[in-house]
Write the structure tokens for this entry.
Amino acid sequence: MSCYLRHMKEVLEAADLHPEDKKERKEVDLAIRELVGMKPEDRCNVVWKEVKVWLQDEDKNNQLTAELKAA
């Protein structure tokens, strides 16, 4: 779970998300997984690989930030 959240500080700050405990990080992790089309049971490294693709694409990065903010 959420092995990649530490690499997403900019996106989380832009979405005004500040997960502080394990429960909040899990909620953010599940939201990100859903947004990028991954399943809750997918391994963290597989999810991170897909998230990196989204972060490197400006449109997808903006979409991810906007949808996290709206969630």
Observations:
- Residues 22-35 form the longest helix (14 residues).
